[in-house]
Amino acid sequence: MAREWDDSLKMLINDNSQDFVTWLFSGAIATGKLLTQVKKRTIDADALVEAIQDGDRFLAHFEFQSTNDPRIAERLLEYNFEARRVHMLPVYSSVIYLKSDGEVPKPPLIWKIPGDREVLRFHYLSIELGELYTKEIRQTGRVGLLPLLLMTKDGARHEVVEEVITGLEVAEQYDLLPITKLLASLVLKSEADQVWLERRFALLDEILRNTPAYQKILKEGRAEGLEEGLEKGRQEALQREIQRQREALLDVIRARFPKIVRQAKKQVASIEDTSILLHLIIKMTTVPTAEEATQLLLDANEDEEQS
Fold it and tell me: Which are the contacts of 62, defined by CB distance < 8 A and separation ≥ 6?
């Protein structure tokens, strides 16, 4: 994904893979989840789901994107090729933009050589949540997609937050409450909204604390610091926002990879780009090893230098 948040978004797809497959591939049935990292070339995807559609097996490749990356199509193509090579199945890639960030690349990706001769045409799905209305997600009838309502064109409202919470409670999908809380705090930015969110989710505190997602992201001993970062949202002062995200990222690292905290502090302290920090929060909760977590930080520092 290129720059945002997670355990959260990765968990959202992995625990609700059928909902996402049904949403983007009508009639398909999710049959399993595969490793999302191609070891040979250090390519990491957000989710790779094995599915069956009309009797044929294929891989559904999902990427979340928070910023407008002009190279997203090439990145999708690269992972698509490697996933097909490793798993020997056709792959259909899709990118889901979490927020609006200008005009994004439109599929298909077309490469040409002099003489206007086409040498490659790569089709993929491009979903801009900021261009959708809540009813379009709601009509899918998929509980696992409910948190995405908050990212739609008309989703940043208290009543939508209530709708998502109620829907998850009715379906007993309590593990999706932490990602709902995170997304709500990022789209409802005013001080009044933040106060309301704090009070609303305080009512769910006991339920939240018992969910695996909350345990992974916050950990009991560190819940207060990260929770404050997630609930306060973006502050008007840029430096405050940067520091908030740094602290949230370090909390996730402490919870999952305590051995690399000392090294991570130096690397995180040098990152000034909020989009990179948001991306790391998500990715850091999904990588399986401390080695890959360290590589994420190194890559992020390189991105910071180039930006």
Answer: 13, 20, 45, 46, 47, 48, 49, 94, 96
Q: Which tokens sit at 189? A: 């930015």
pLDDT in tens, 214-263: 666 555 445 455 555 544 444 444 677 788 778 888 888 888 888 899 89
Residue type at 9 in one-letter notation? L
Is residue 117 exposed (0-12), middle (13-18) or buried (19+ Cβ within 10 Å)? exposed
pTM for this model (two decimals) = 0.63
Q: How confident is the model at residue 306 (pLDDT cuts 50, 70, 90)?
A: low
Share of the chain above pLDDT 70, in %: 82
Domain 8-131, CATH: 3.40.1350
Q: Where are the domains of the chain?
A: 8-131, 146-306
d(CA 232, CA 163): 21
Peptide bond into 108 cis (omega under 30): yes
- State the Rg of the chain over Cα: 19
The owner of tokens 């949202």 is 233
